[in-house]
Amino acid sequence: MALLKVFDPCAICLLCLVLSASELCNGGITGNFLRKEYSPDMPLDSDVFQVPPGYNAPQQIAGFLNHDRGVIISWITPDEPGSDTVLYWSENSKHKNRAEGIFVSYKFFNYTSGYIHHCAIKNLEYNTKYMYEIGIGYTIRRFWFKTPPRTGPAVPYTFGLIGDLGQTHDSNVTLTHYESNPKKGKTVLFLGDLSYSNDYPFHDNTRWDTWGRFLERNAAYQPWIWTAGNHELDFAPQLEETTPFKPYMHRYYVPYASSHSTSPLWYSIKRGSAYLIVLSSYSAYGKSTPQYKWLRDELPKVDRSTTPWLIVLMHCPIYTSNWHHFMEGETMRVV
């Protein structure tokens, strides 16, 4: 398995690669890094935030991995629910299949979201390119995705690795860098801190919408595996908003139930020769908590003869010298 590492200059997240004991890993210094000054957010009229034409046209399209031979397509219609249907077909077929989804919405302080659609497509063929359409009439939009190969110990698979993306001018550079990389990642492992909307007055959730439109150019064509960071907490009692992760969990639908998790903040999935486990740095993880118990039960399921790579994703580094999160992951490491 190859790993394509693509970091924003301010990325401070952690990817843990847990290899088998028979593997010898040698650490070392590969180069020096001088952190840039913070880049400002792109203005609301930036072309990367452009709204698609047509009344109630689907926007913020994104794909998520489902277990085995499935994907989850998500999108938002801003004005009314519209259609929950996704039409899809393999590249070499003319027959269009139909999948029906659901929609949700939420309120956060003085913001009301659009209609957030999630549609699971199941029983797809391995390693196959599919076209798909969403929308009605003149607002129909077409995209494509490719399903992964069958899981196996020698199956090559390339992941992109991004964290702390935000929507600054540097964010645009980072995403462009990833898209132009000749390694061509097939799935993005995203390590938390998505839109940074909580940095705005009243946690301005319109910045979730701009971020979704910014990301669409990539996320509509390949799956992203999500990890929640501290900027997704959105715990704001001063605004009478006391439900943690509210915008994040409404917008990003992950297949947590398939791995017998009780929360979308921790789950597992397999891809290629890798077994991926996502954990939440900002949820309880003591020995009596649901997250700890789930992880305890999940680890024995890892079969190194089938998936020799075990990749654990979390936002807060367990080991770091960066002052932003210094010692923040210490209690999780001890547990």
Automatic annotation (TrEMBL):
Reported cofactor(s): Fe cation; Zn(2+)
**Any one GO molecular-function label of the UniProt entry:** metal ion binding
The residue ranges of the Purple acid phosphatase N-terminal domain are 66-147
Keyword presence, tRNA processing: no
Q: What class of enzyme is it?
A: hydrolase
Signal peptide annotation? 1-27
The Enzyme Commission number assigned here is 3.1.3.2
Which keywords has UniProt assigned to this entry? Glycoprotein, Hydrolase, Iron, Metal-binding, Signal, Zinc
Give the Calcineurin-like phosphoesterase domain ranges.
Answer: 158-324
Catalytic activity reported: a phosphate monoester + H2O = an alcohol + phosphate
Q: Which SUPFAM superfamilies match?
A: Metallo-dependent phosphatases, Purple acid phosphatase, N-terminal domain
Enumerate the Pfam families for this protein: Metallophos (PF00149), Pur_ac_phosph_N (PF16656)
Which family would the database say this protein is a member of? Answer: Belongs to the metallophosphoesterase superfamily. Purple acid phosphatase family.
The protein, known as = Purple acid phosphatase
Species the sequence originates in: Gossypium mustelinum
